[in-house]
Amino acid sequence: ANQRSAFYWAEHCRGSPVVERLLGPLFLGVLIVDGWCAYNQIVCAKQTCMAHLFRKIHAFIDAYPQYRSLMRFYLKLRRIIKDGVKLQGARKALPELIFQRRLKALHQRLDTLLAWPSPNAVLAKTIDKVRRQRAHILTFVEHEDAPSHNNYGEYIIKKGVVKRKM
What average pLDDT values come out for the chain (166 residues) when binned by 10 residues? Predict the structure, then answer.
């Protein structure tokens, strides 16, 4: 799905063979993924849906409001993504070397965030969730017009998903 259209396929299972049958083993666009491992088989540029990831972190924040470090972690991660959106938008106006330096700085900030010193057990679990998606968190910055989320697709296919669940 994208901002204009969606392809919805109902299937009895949701494994990687279904994904590969629909997209093929090689996808030429940027695939926005929600962390579901079935997408790992597809060769393509992948972007973690940050809306999904942020919702997971918010669930931890809601469940454990006493751990303020969760909110600090979330705010720092959100700032990195916002700065990534700005960098993506400024790419055409920047010399390639400057763009690459700024992108590298974003990656370093993300790595520093994931190396949080002495996290409590809940924050450690949150960091692990983000770390598993690390390779696909800033992909959108490198691709013109690639979003950091798949909210468009989620919105478009919502009726089909509700029908499937019923």
Answer: 70 80 85 83 90 93 95 98 97 97 98 97 95 95 90 67 71
Tokens of 10: 């109902």
Confirm if 87 and 73 have CB atoms less than 8 A apart: no
Contact residues for 54 (Cβ-Cβ < 8 A; gap 6+): 74, 77, 78
In 3D space, the residue among 14, 24, 36, 19 whose CA is nearest the CA of residue 133 turns out to be 36
Residue 65's CB: how many other CB atoms inside 10 A? 10
Contact 70, 57 (CB under 8 A): yes
Whole-number Å distance between alpha carbons of 164 and 14 = 12
pTM of structure: 0.86
